[in-house]
Structure formats: C-alpha cells, structure tokens
C-alpha cells in the first residue's frame, strides 16, 4: 500500500502512549492500532482532525504517499 501512516513517529515525538491518544481522540485502542499499522481502508476526516488536534500536527505529518515499486523479473 503506497499510503504510509506515521502515527508512531508523532507519538514518539510527543512522548504519548497509544492508549492516551486513543482516549483523547475518542476511538478505541483497537481501531487506533488498525490505523497506525496501515491496515485501515479509510479514515474519517473527523478522526484525522482529532488526531491532528491532539498531536498538534498537520495531516501530512501523519500520512504520506510512496510509489509502489514494480517487481521487474530478470529476463
């Protein structure tokens, strides 16, 4: 998946435990784990807004795009 979620990076910078973030954002720790581990298919803007507010960051600090590397077989 080319969208990379960097919530762990911001948690480390803010020295905030995952449980505290989940509580302040208003989502379950399990749902936050799905999001931060890159297994989420979507994220609501309200959730993204709450994450940014609590972590005092921009959406681009939490999400980034990386091009997928195509597997080119040896010929």
Task: Please tell me about this protein's structure.
- By secondary structure, the chain is mainly alpha-helical.
- The chain has helices at 7-14, 18-25, 29-36, 45-55, 59-62; strands at 3-5, 63-65.
- It has a two-stranded antiparallel sheet with strand order 1-2.
- Helix 2 packs across helix 3 (29-36).
- It is elongated, with a radius of gyration of 14 Å.
Query: What is the SS-derived class?
Result: mainly alpha
Q: Residue share in helices?
A: 40-55%
Shape: elongated
Mean pLDDT across all residues, rounded? 92
Strand count = 2
**Cα-atom radius of gyration:** 14 Å
> How are the strands of the biggest sheet laid out side by side?
1-2
How widely separated are the two ends? 26 Å
Q: Please summarize the sheet with the most strands.
A: 2 strands, antiparallel
> Which regions contain 5 or more consecutive residues with pLDDT less than 50?
none
Protein name: Helix-turn-helix transcriptional regulator
Pfam family, one: HTH_26
InterPro entries: Cro/C1-type_HTH
Domain HTH cro/C1-type: 21-62
Short description:
This protein has helices at residues 7-14, 18-25, 29-36, 45-55, 59-62, and strands at residues 3-5, 63-65.
Secondary-structure map:
Blueprint: E1 3-5, H1 7-14, H2 18-25, H3 29-36, H4 45-55, H5 59-62, E2 63-65
Antiparallel strand pairs: 1-2
Helix pairs in contact: 2-3
Task: Please supply descriptive tags for the structure shown above.
about 80 residues, mainly alpha, about 50% helix, elongated, Cro/C1-type_HTH, Helix-turn-helix transcriptional regulator
